[in-house]
Write a structure and sequence with these properties.
Elements lengths: L8 E3 L2 E3 L6 E6 L4 E7 L3 H19 L3 H17 L1 H12 L3 H7 L1 H14 L7 E4 L2 E9 L2 E5 L5 H14 L3 E5 L7 H11 L7 E3 L4 H9 L5 E5 L2 H13 L3 E5 L5 E4 L5 H13 L11 E5 L3 H12 L20 H16 L3 E4 L3 E4 L2 E7 L2 E4 L6 H4 L6 E7 L2 H8 L7 E5 L3 H10 L4 E4 L18 E2 L12 E8 L9
Helix pairs in contact: 2-5, 2-7, 3-4, 5-6, 6-7, 10-11
The protein binds NADPH dihydro-nicotinamide-adenine-dinucleotide phosphate.
Length: 487
């Protein structure tokens, strides 16, 4: 299987290569096969991406918003028309099953482009009456933005960053994760086909050092990172040196609270979705499942039953519900957490091991795993695992569970399952999380802001809220008479 792109980088409307950059092999994690070889960006590549981005931004910002919006909406249509091909590439890039990538990746990117294409015409300032005089504000583009992506949703992350940035009149240079470099190149190709000026969305490949060079570049105005908290801290600090704008979408260890009056079958669906989709490699996952003691054993029994039926296999087979992890390195990390769970005394309900599937023996598979009787201080309850590992904890008291749910440095997401309307809103109001659900999990429509509090992040993606993070306000005072002065 090969997925070799024409070249490593996409700059100024064309594929470009600089073989002097360090080699970057792309591995299909279902088989361990190398499917492409790319090169990390050299300083010359970074420079040309910055120059072309700045040039394109001036041209783009001068267009009428309706024209900018049209380009984004056209790109959304092209993505939808090419969904099958883009989904197959996403599966090769990440190992996620085609059953998922057909509905959750390119399509989510298309929704985002369509949404921001639609609101491009509504990004306005305000008028402020001041008696005789008045003032107005303009919402202006920031300039050249850098997007840095994680490896779990390479197409979606590229679109979630590019669409609002471009709608607001910015240009963007995107650096995908070195683990999944292929999909963002397609987004760049499609934006050109949709009529974007050359250089408006450039893609440069590389390891963390390329990301760092982009963040530090004096001609870059903003950085939007999706990644882990430690990387976020480094990127935020580097951006601060240049007083640059930031959006930080970082990790989580989110609580999913199931009260004893919840629809148990529905809560199990949410817990499975929020732990096993994308092999558990989702930042907003509800990895600490707090279940009321009165329903705990019933919950665990049925959860175990349903988890054992998950179809694990070849990601290209549409019947497969769970594929491998993104890489063999990542599987090692997840396997260490499986060991830690058992060592710390959690009760293993399902799974607990790496997997060798017939015909896919070299794939990076692990079993969907459920630990019960997990306590708050166990490593598996405190650290982000980013694999299909669910921790079930129990509780009896509402106030106590809220305090424990909030007892983490993270604050990305949270959910409550209950049939008591008042309790649902009361508890959500007390949870320290940026993105919450009631009787649902991990639904992230583009119309709804997405992001975290505490160490899970700064800023919001999606919805109108994202506009605040890709524009700056210029205030203009208009005198309607002579200047007043004491001199
Ligand atoms: P990392 O933090 O390891 O990397 C994120 C990106 O930053 C990669 O492109 C990486 O490049 C780059 N990078 C690394 N070091 C630097 C640096 N010093 N300066 C600039 N860029 C750098 O995250 P992962 O890719 O492992 O993704 C998993 C993490 O992402 C999890 O913590 C997850 O929770 C989080 N995440 C958050 C989401 C959210 O929206 N809140 C959504 C999805 C994931 P390279 O890969 O080459 O090292």
């Amino acid at each position: 299987m090969r997925a070799q792109p024409e070249a490593s980088h996409f700059i100024d409307g064309a594929y470009v290569e600089d073989p002097a950059g360090a080699a970057l092999d792309v591995v299909y994690s279902a088989t361990g096969e190398t499917i492409a070889r790319l090169h990390s960006a050299t300083p010359a590549i970074i420079d040309s991406a910055v120059k072309s981005g700045r040039r394109a931004q001036r041209e783009w910002a001068a267009l009428a918003p309706v024209e900018r919006g049209r380009v984004l909406r056209r790109a959304a249509d092209i993505i939808r028309a090419r969904n099958r091909e883009l989904s197959e590439l996403e599966t090769l890039d990440t190992g996620k099953p085609i059953q998922e990538t057909l509905v959750a990746d390119a399509t989510s990117g298309a929704d985002c482009l369509e949404f921001f294409g639609g609101i491009a015409t509504t990004i306005n300032g305000e008028t402020i009456p001041l008696g005789r005089d008045w003032a107005y504000t303009r919402r202006e583009a920031l300039g050249l933005c850098v997007g840095i992506g994680a490896w779990n949703y390479p197409t979606q992350i590229a679109c979630w960053k590019a669409a609002p940035a471009l709608a607001c009149g910015n240009a963007m240079i995107f650096k995908p994760s070195e683990v999944t470099p292929l999909c963002a190149l397609k987004v760049a190709e499609i934006l050109i086909e949709a009529g974007a000026p050359k250089g408006l969305f450039n893609v440069v490949q590389g390891f963390g050092d390329v990301g760092a060079a982009l963040v530090e570049h004096p001609l870059v105005d903003k950085v939007s990172l999706t990644g882990s908290v430690p990387t976020g801290a480094k990127v935020y600090a580097a951006a601060a040196k240049g007083i640059k704008h930031v959006t930080m979408e970082l990790g989580g260890k989110s609580p999913l609270i199931v009260f004893d009056d919840a629809d148990v079958e529905n809560a199990i669906s949410g817990a499975m979705l929020g732990n096993f989709y994308s092999s558990g490699q989702i930042c907003s996952n509800g990895t600490r499942v707090f279940v009321h003691k009165a329903i705990k054993e019933r919950f665990l029994e049925r959860l175990g039953e349903r988890t054992r039926t998950i179809v694990i296999g070849d990601p290209m087979d549409e019947a497969t519900q769970m594929g491998p992890l993104v890489s063999h390195d990542h599987r090692e990390k997840v396997a260490a957490y499986l060991e830690a769970g058992t060592r710390d005394g959690a009760r293993l309900v399902v799974g607990g091991s790496t997997l060798s599937l017939p015909g896919l023996e070299t794939g990076a598979y692990v079993e969907p795993t459920i630990f019960a009787d997990v306590s708050d201080d166990m490593t598996i309850a405190r650290e982000e695992i980013f694999g299909p590992v669910m921790c079930v904890l129990d509780f009896t008291d509402e106030e106590d569970v809220v305090e424990r749910a909030n007892g983490t440095e993270f604050g990305l997401s949270a959910a409550v399952y209950t049939s008591d309307l008042e309790r649902a809103h009361r508890v959500i109001g007390k949870l320290a999380a940026g993105t919450c659900w009631i009787n649902a999990y991990n639904l992230t429509p583009v119309e709804m802001p997405f992001g975290g509090v505490k160490r899970s992040g700064v800023g919001r993606e999606n919805a109108r809220a994202a506009v605040d993070f890709y524009t700056q306000v210029k205030s203009v005072y208009v005198a309607m008479g002579p200047q007043e002065t004491p001199y």
